[in-house]
Every structure is written in C-alpha cells, then in structure tokens.
C-alpha cells in the first residue's frame, strides 16, 4: 500500500496513537488503513462413498486437485460463499451442508471454512476456474496431486470420521515451516 | 474508496472481465481492489458458574455489556485473536479455550467467532476499551443492557448447553431486519 484510498495522498507505515501495531496511515488526512485476514469458504461434496474434487485451471497450483473453495464476498454468509464457490468451480448443486473443518493460516492471513455437503444430482461440470471435476473413491484420491494442505487434511479427517459416522466441527492451525516453501 | 492504494490515481466501480461483481478498479494501473468480510474473534470466559462481561468504553454501544472480542489481525490465528482481545479488554488470562459459536452478519460484512474459555485467576480488570469488567451469575446477566445480539445469543446458548454439559460448535446467521436499526 502506497497511497490513501480515501484522498489519494501518500501513506506511511506507523503505529497509530493508542495502538500497538504498525498500520498504513495517510500523511494528509490521517485515515488509518487496517488490513485483516480473509475467509476462504468451500465444500467437501460427497455422493454416496465418493468425494468431489476439481482440477485447478488457475494459479497457484494449476493442474492440481482441490475442494471447491474461494474467497468469501461482502454481503454473504460463509455458507452462501461455500455454496457459490461450489457452483462456480464445479457447477454442482448440493444440500444438507454443515460446517466441518476450519483452518487458520496465519502466514498468509487466511481462515479456511469447509462445509460437508451432499451432491444433489450428477449434473456437475468444470466451471471456468476448473479443468476437470470428478468423483473419487477413497482409494483413488490423487494424494500426491492435491493443491493445498487444507485439502489433504480435510479429506483425511473426513475418511477417518466416516468410520464412526460422527463429524464434529474441528479447527486446526497450518503454519509456515521455515526451510519449506510457504504452504497453504 | 476513491483512489488506488497502489498508484494513487482514481478508481471506478466496475465489473472486471470474467467477474460478476462490481469492484473498485484503478483507471490508470487496472488494479482490482477486492473488499472482503472481517472476522471478529472473542471469548466466552467462565469462572465456576459465572461468566465474564465487559462494559464498553467505546462506541458503538458505549456503556453496554459485551463479551471481550474484536477484529482479528493479520498474522494471527482466530484463537490467538480471541485470547488477545480478552487480554486487551478484560486483562484476563484464560485456558482450555475451544471454538463454540460462529455468527454470520452479512449486512455488516462480519463473521463472529467465539471461543469458550476458563478464567485462570481472578486478577482481571478493565482494559482501555472497557469501563468495567465483572463476573455475572446467570440470574444477574443484564439482558437489556447487552451491546450486540451476538452477545445475548451466545450467552443464551451457553446457559442452555450447560444443562447438558455438551457444547457443540454452532453457526447462526444474524441478518438485518428492515424497519429496525441495523443490528450487530
């Protein structure tokens, strides 16, 4: 951030009075520009024993498999965001959605929220951000071709929970490991 | 938003190519400025049968009682944010925190996340944003002087769940009711 979105003058990174964090503050109108984490909402969509994955048509991780998910927009609920992303990326209609997995990713300022949901019919297809959409049995999950750690962790947790048919809401932290590339 | 925070030139509200929502886009450098919901994180702090409330020293709802909570910052987890706010507003140390209530407030672009937590000692006090901090028995909760609907709903749910000693994670939507003032 270099300029004030309110008046167009330059900003400096300073600690506002009464605060303890550096913020971008306008040198002219004194507006403080806060920056906050974003929510990524998506669905773990199932059809009988199978789960739905999308092959990404965009970076990052072009060509890798993911659960349909994306940034929550202003004016919607997390559930609406998850269903919208599922429609946009997999053209999939779902029902019985329930909050399932939350991930904190503080190194990239994101909070993931995945809902479990049941596919309503088999009339799904790749949306603009997907190369392909497929249903996978547990034995056929492309574990080495998953786009993000959040996807693998959610799938593993789901297959575990499915054995007990009990799906409590869980929260996990995923943090940057020095020496590795930043993970998502 | 009137100016591009990247180059300082003016922005217009337009729908970017391949998008379906109006965004602020720079007329000069074409940067798209996305705006997304923010997370408010806080704690329902208990001590034996009592719950901890803070009397707000700031607007909105100056003088009304609230659970300690505030905007999650970049670089932290939701749990860290909830504990930080509990320290800042109530100077309270807690332990055994667990995710409890989530609220979607799409009319004000917020998602609330409350953790249940146990107070570690009675050495708490009003932080800068609080006029007072007190422990309340259920019978003494100032129901008509609570700052926000999220606070009352979380307290009611807690007193209900406490009877079964079972505290599942729950998500609720709180939406704007036309004719009323916007609620939080």
Automatic annotation (TrEMBL), chains A, B:
<dbReference type="GO" id="GO:0016787">
    <property type="term" value="F:hydrolase activity"/>
</dbReference>
<dbReference type="InterPro" id="IPR020476">
    <property type="entry name" value="Nudix_hydrolase"/>
</dbReference>
<dbReference type="Pfam" id="PF14803">
    <property type="entry name" value="Zn_ribbon_Nudix"/>
</dbReference>
<keyword id="KW-0460">Magnesium</keyword>
<keyword id="KW-0378">Hydrolase</keyword>
<feature type="domain" description="Nudix hydrolase">
    <location>
        <begin position="36"/>
        <end position="159"/>
    </location>
</feature>
<dbReference type="Pfam" id="PF00293">
    <property type="entry name" value="NUDIX"/>
</dbReference>
<dbReference type="InterPro" id="IPR029401">
    <property type="entry name" value="Nudix_N"/>
</dbReference>
<protein>
    <submittedName>
        <fullName>ADP-ribose pyrophosphatase YjhB, NUDIX family</fullName>
    </submittedName>
</protein>
<dbReference type="InterPro" id="IPR015797">
    <property type="entry name" value="NUDIX_hydrolase-like_dom_sf"/>
</dbReference>
<dbReference type="InterPro" id="IPR000086">
    <property type="entry name" value="NUDIX_hydrolase_dom"/>
</dbReference>
């Amino acid at each position: 951030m270099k300029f004030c979105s309110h008046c167009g003058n330059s900003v400096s990174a300073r600690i506002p009075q009464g605060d303890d964090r550096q913020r971008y503050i306008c040198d002219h109108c004194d507006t403080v520009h806060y920056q906050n984490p974003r929510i990524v909402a998506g669905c773990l969509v199932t059809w009988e024993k199978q789960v739905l994955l999308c092959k990404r048509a965009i970076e990052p991780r072009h060509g890798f498999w993911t659960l349909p998910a994306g940034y929550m927009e202003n004016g919607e609920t997390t559930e609406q965001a998850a269903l919208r992303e599922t429609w946009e990326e997999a053209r999939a209609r779902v029902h019985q959605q329930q909050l399932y997995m939350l991930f904190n990713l503080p190194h990239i300022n994101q909070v993931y929220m995945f809902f479990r949901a049941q596919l309503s019919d088999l009339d799904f297809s790749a949306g603009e951000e997907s190369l392909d959409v497929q249903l996978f049995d547990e034995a056929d999950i492309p574990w080495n071709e998953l786009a993000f750690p959040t996807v693998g962790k959610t799938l593993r947790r789901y297959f575990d929970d499915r054995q007990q048919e009990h799906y409590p809401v869980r929260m996990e932290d995923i943090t940057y490991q020095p020496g590795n590339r930043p993970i998502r």
